[in-house]
Design a protein that fits this description.
globular, Rossmann fold, 319 residues, alpha/beta
């Protein structure tokens, strides 16, 4: 049996985009034992995939903020000891950064990664035993799968399968009627879609029989959700959610509409019809990507109108 370590540490959208390589690898090695090295804040994502045997969290983001603390160095030593316990047949780093390449060097096994012309940081290529070229302008899902295809000599054109399993859970606060999740929150101001747009969209979708559900993650996002809910008939502000609860909410939705954020990619991964709104980024490399109904609208500096979103939403709801 092959034992394989996948390294894709962050961010949420990138970790989700890496999920299809699990099914790709197991199409040739069905008995392979797959482990995944990931930033601790995103560890719940690979844990949703039933074919990931072990999730290994790393805390680089947190550690670098507290390198002066003894506790940080104890955690680093414990992490290195844990990684050294396992011998891997293959270590595959799809991140393509120097930090991920150095993490690959800490693990025991043959290391595969992107070559210097493909990696986001060319020095990362020095950390691998074998490197491969992939088109740096292709979509992230395509890049990651192309790397895995070359590293493991996989068949081309395998079906796209995110493969995650959402555990059954009752979210009693959800409306009894069909609902749409409006992912309005973003940490970057340039990705913001104006509140009046969300309100107009909420009204239009309410006329289509959908109740708006408004998640949030911070106090500012909660206050925004409250303002939107006050202006959209029957809208529901979600409680604070775990990632698994958010995944269940997205899975049960009739439709998801969201700005460029991790949860909008999770919605596509669970198979829900999803519309991505792009205001301060372009979707070509990191937009929604799935075989289920999706649509990327807008681009950097040219956000979509409410009418643009409503037309696509109506088409998804009447398929």
């Amino acid at each position: 049996m092959k034992r394989i370590l996948l390294i894709k540490t962050s961010s949420m959208g990138d970790v989700i985009h890496n999920l299809p390589i699990v099914a790709d690898i197991r199409s040739r090695y069905p008995e392979a034992e797959l482990h995944w090295l990931v930033e601790e804040s995103f560890a719940d994502i690979p844990a949703l995939h039933p074919q990931i045997k072990q999730v290994i969290p790393v805390a680089i983001r947190r550690w670098r903020k507290s390198l002066y603390r003894a506790q940080t160095w104890r955690e680093i030593r414990a992490f290195r000891a844990r990684l050294a316990q396992t011998d891997y047949d293959v270590i595959l780093d799809t991140q393509g950064l120097l930090k991920s390449g150095l993490l690959a060097r800490l693990a025991h096994g043959k290391r595969f990664g992107l070559d210097s012309s493909s990696a986001r940081e060319s020095l990362a290529a020095l950390c691998y035993d074998a490197t491969f070229y992939v088109n740096p302008n292709a979509h992230a899902v395509v890049r990651y799968r192309a790397l895995a295809q070359q590293a493991f000599e996989l068949a081309p054109d395998l079906p796209l399968d995110y493969g995650i399993h959402i555990p059954e859970m009752a979210l009693h606060w959800l409306p009894d009627s069909r609902y749409v999740v409006l992912l309005h929150a973003t940490s970057r101001a340039e990705k913001y879609w104006a509140e009046e747009n969300w309100i107009a969209l909420g009204h239009a979708l309410q006329q289509c029989g959908l109740t708006a559900v408004l998640p949030w993650g911070s106090l500012a996002e909660y206050e925004c959700a409250q303002r939107l809910a006050a202006a959209i008939p029957q809208a529901v502000v979600a409680p604070r959610l775990t990632l698994k609860e958010a995944a269940a909410m997205l899975k049960q939705a009739a439709l998801v509409v969201g700005v460029d954020t991790g949860l909008v990619h999770l919605a596509t991964a669970v198979g829900t019809p999803t519309i991505g709104i792009y205001c301060g980024s372009d979707p070509e490399k990191n937009g929604l990507y799935a075989a289920t109904p999706i649509c990327n609208l807008g681009r950097d500096g040219a956000p979509p109108s409410v009418a643009d979103v409503t037309i696509v939403a109506d088409s998804f709801l009447h398929v």
